[in-house]
Amino acid sequence: MFPEYRDLITRLKGEGSNTRFLNLFERHNELDHQIKAMEGHDAGAIHSEIETLKKEKLRVKDELYTILRQEATVGK
Description:
Oligomer: single chain
Low-confidence stretches: none
Number of helices: 3
Order of helices and strands: HHH
Number of strands: 0
Strand content: under 5%
């Protein structure tokens, strides 16, 4: 995820000062694991749940990207 920000992600995770970033990063990983686990058992009812989780994951990813862009600007 966001290879162009790999160093910045590592720094933000290591510093631990941006709790919003850390919480979103953790939530993104949790959603990713949930989706992968559910896709292995994809049935009709589960399909809509997977789609909901994917939308949430995308929303979280968008927020992470916004934070990374802001942090990259501040760091210059």
